Amino acid sequence: MSVTYPGSGTVSSLSCGYRFSVRSFPAPSNNFDPTSGGRLVVHGGAANFCQRFCGLKLWILKSLNISQLKRKPAPVNEFKSLKNEDNDHLSSSPKRTSSLEEQVSDGATIKLGHVSASVESPTSLPKALSYQFPSDGAGGPSLCIAVIGATGELARRKIFPALFALYYSGFLPENIGIFGYSRKNLTDEDLRSTIASTLTCRVDHQENCGDKMDAFLSRTYYINGGCGNREGMSKLNALMEQIEKLLITDPATAYLPQGKSEANRIFYLSVPQEALIDVASCLADNAQTSKGWNRIIIEKPFGFNALSSHRLTQSLLSKFKEKQIYRIDHLLGRNLIENLTVLRFSNLVFEPLWSYKYIRNVQVILSEDLGAHAARYFDGYGIIRDIVHSHILQTIALLAMEPPISLDGEDIRNEKVKVLRSIRKLDPSDVILGQYKASTKDKVDIYTNSLTPTYFTAALYIDNARWDGVPFLVKTGIGLIQHRVEIRIQFHRVPGNLYREHMGRNIDLATNELILRDVPDEAILIRVNNKIPGLGLHLDSPELNLLYKDKYNVEVPDSYEHLLLDAFDGDNHLFMRSDEVAAAWNVLSPVLQEIDKNSIAPELYELGGRGPVGAYYLWAKHGVPWAED
Ligand SMILES: NC(=O)C1=CN([C@@H]2O[C@H](COP(=O)(O)OP(=O)(O)OC[C@H]3O[C@@H](n4cnc5c(N)ncnc54)[C@H](OP(=O)(O)O)[C@@H]3O)[C@@H](O)[C@H]2O)C=CC1
Ligand SMILES: O=C1O[C@H](COP(=O)(O)O)[C@@H](O)[C@H](O)[C@H]1O
């Protein structure tokens, strides 16, 4: 059986006449048969695929005969975000274009507890497409999530799978609508088909997986924004309003006292930097709801440098309140990052040592081998904008901040920004940049014509009372020998150590070390000096090892899931506030300016190697021994 798959040739057209490369919206690789003349061929392995997508409309119509879906109620109580928050309601009233009235036709019925209606769509919705929204677990405010840039790589690879994982695990309410928006001329089924190719169920609860996927996809709609985002966002708004009416399954929510949400919306802006201001501004004016809160999620990098970032921030703040803006860096959704503050503030053994008095250096290491890297996105931005500005500086801020007065997002952000503002502007002489050597077989030759750094190592200093003189050594790069993500905190040597004669190695190397490792194999390790069993007095420095895979038998959620859930919940502590963004650019500006002036050329290094040798000298200059690769 086959189904036509739009955009499966080499080029296709946007609905407004632009041309685009289908590279950004490929057919699911295991289903696309190039010999089939641009048609999507369903192979045996995809047993559910056909039922789910090829005849989706037929199937949904058929399933209208089923009076109740066999589905367990979602644990909506776990979905913390349903609490109402005044502070991210509309910052300025959106200019409404005339909202299209919901059209219920063809004898469609709307029953309490089970909605099934036929809706004529103002956009791409096929006529007579029907929806089913079970009442189980619904009843609170509805939630609409729009992914702007739905055909892009990030949406396909990360955002939709994360949304499904949350839905599957019961963290999204049943009265949810998911909207994919781009400028391509696609249908709901096209979008669903692409999304479906990336969905997986968690290994530990496969139950009802197919049903859950079907339910998730049946709540997913595509909007062709067309040539202008202003009109596009009006269309999105109209469709959302239609769906929101259907999502209200509880009569108690039909009228709500002032200040209570009836319908909440999240807009995930997964679009190129160049499009961000226009998209944000058009959606602010045309697609916000006045019946609940509106939040926008914005992808890194947050500007290209201090100036462009400032302009972006000004533009966003002219349309949204700070509280509505969630700047996402998914690497901050890793367990390791959240655990930084848990370790510090819920244990007595670390915090008293947490200063220059006991700590001699901190190392933040994020190295990727080539396989881990998304080359297309990276090109043009480079490692400083991609990794250092948000991920590395946020990690340092969380690690170095003073105890916040509570776990509230603003309290934590207030402390983070103080650290960021205390970091000394980076001296270009304390930085080593690298670029891996191009190879014709790899995508990396895109870098040969530019000075885009793919490797960065530097010594940063926080000029405050707690961290005076402590070097924070950063090492990050791609195309390196190993994928490694860890934070190493090295302590001073023991003054007048009685056992110095019994240490098998340089006493400066035999210091205590706390290692917080994310990749490979998440673990917390503490290096201690210890007597080797047996006669005589010999010491070595083994690690006390809390290896997660041995200790916890749990599936670790993807970091996008963690952060999306935080955004739904209104918890913004892992998202950068405008003042944090500006402070971080301030630290990096001197180096970025030197790069722009072509005053620093990156040192070339071998693909799959250890990075530029200059890095070893830099670390030695700051008295920091290398952690082994
Ligand atoms: N890919 C990754 O690993 C990462 C990406 N990011 C960031 O995420 C964002 C998206 O990245 P990625 O998915 O890779 O990019 P892609 O180029 O693959 O996708 C961009 C998406 O935006 C849409 N789009 C482009 N221009 C406009 C416009 N003017 N108005 C509305 N929609 C538009 C495109 O669709 P169409 O052309 O049909 O409109 C497409 O759906 C970028 O900001 C990037 O910096 C951040 C971290 C990692
Ligand atoms: O944000 C980014 O992350 C990816 C790595 O993410 P992962 O969760 O898949 O490990 C990185 O390759 C990319 O450069 C960066 O922008």
Automatic annotation (TrEMBL):
Residues 147-339 form the Glucose-6-phosphate dehydrogenase NAD-binding domain. Its EC number is 1.1.1.49. Pfam families: G6PD_C, G6PD_N. Keywords: Carbohydrate metabolism, Glucose metabolism, NADP, Oxidoreductase. It is an enzyme of class 1 (oxidoreductase). Residues 90-102 have a biased composition (Polar residues). Transmembrane segments: none annotated. One of its GO terms (biological process) is pentose-phosphate shunt. It catalyses: D-glucose 6-phosphate + NADP(+) = 6-phospho-D-glucono-1,5-lactone + NADPH + H(+). Pathway: Carbohydrate degradation; pentose phosphate pathway; D-ribulose 5-phosphate from D-glucose 6-phosphate (oxidative stage): step 1/3. This is Glucose-6-phosphate 1-dehydrogenase. The lineage of its organism: Eukaryota, Viridiplantae, Streptophyta, Embryophyta, Tracheophyta.
